[in-house]
Amino acid sequence: MWNECIKKCITVLDGGFSTELERNGFSFLHDPLWSATVLHTNPEAIKDVHKSYLERGADIITTASYQASIGGFQKHLGLNLDESKRLIKLSVELAENAKQDHLKESISECKEILIAGSVGPYGAALADGSEYSGKYCDKVSHEELIKWHLPRIQCLLDAGADLLAFETMPAVKEAEALMKLLHDFPHAKAWLSFSSQSMHYTCNGEDISSAALNCIKRAPSGQLVAVGVNCCPAEFAGSLLKDIASVSDGFPLIVYPNSGEKWDHQQGWTGEKVKPNHTYLDTWVNASAKIIGGCCRTTPEDIFHIHQFACEKNKENVVA
């Protein structure tokens, strides 16, 4: 049913997760686990971020598991295998608790809220910035990528995630590995979003339309709910979406760019927002975007703008 709904309506995704934690006093610049470390040190803070996005209109909240991995928790937190799996499952439980609290506090609200288990790229766990280039894919086989992603996906689904967010994928090779892995979970739904730093290509330099189409074809029937881009400058998103839409035959698209600031592995985020993301919303919708949110450096206020826009557009669709 949800698959059919997103073909007709705009669904609002949440925004930058670590951004909100940083605004609340956390620092992750040189932390190899990034915001996933807060699962261990202060899980209540994660729940609070989820609630802040729900309060501003998000229909989907993503778990704090983007940079979580069994190996990472073992190496950097000294946890054993079972403890590491438990921490990944906790990311889903915290999102569910935030959802239930929100529904209790919003008596009049009856919309469906979904929890997406965040599955970040292999490069994120390397903590060397290579997630923004995808160059590691030249050194890692399909089989190694599948083996590495499998336990986190299993944990997220076992904990009750409604769908999976295969996000910030810099290279088609890793995306293809995830499409193959999705066949092993026939009841799972997922979206796939590539990262990009240009108008027409993935971070690894592959044509975005070819990359998206290739993965749509490889995905098991009915399990891939959307494909698109995230963690890209907002001014590039419209072009990237148009390229994907030109070959995807009406397939639902997803977009959640960052703020336009630049990431430096040593200094962190530099520069300023070029233009508010909500000023691009009409362009993204005209390019077939159905799920819209924000990535790095976007806030609940940015998501509220998308929520207001979605409410108006969805009313127009109902009238039409």
Explain this structure to me?
This protein has 320 residues and is α/β, with parallel strands linked by helices. The protein is built from 13 helices and ten strands. It has helices at residues 2-8, 17-23, 38-41, 43-55, 70-77, 81-105, 122-126, 142-158, 172-182, 208-218, 234-248, 281-286, 300-319; strands at 11-12, 60-62, 114-119, 163-169, 190-194, 224-230, 253-256, 262-264, 268-270, 289-292. The strands form two sheets. An eight-stranded parallel beta sheet has the order 1-10-7-6-5-4-3-2. A two-stranded antiparallel sheet has the order 8-9. It is globular, with a radius of gyration of 18 Å. The two termini are 20 Å apart. The mean pLDDT is 91.
Question: How are strands sequenced across the largest beta sheet?
Answer: 1-10-7-6-5-4-3-2
End-to-end distance: 20 Å
Strand content: 5-15%
Low-confidence stretches: none
Helices and strands, in order, run as HEHHHEHHEHHEHEHEHEEEHEH
General form:
globular
What structural class do the secondary elements suggest? alpha/beta
The total count of helices amounts to 13
Taking all Cα atoms into account, the compactness measure Rg is 18 Å
Mean pLDDT across every amino acid position = 91
| Share of residues in helices | 40-55%
Number of strands: 10
Q: Give a quick account of the main beta sheet: strands, pairing sense, barrel closure.
A: 8 strands, parallel
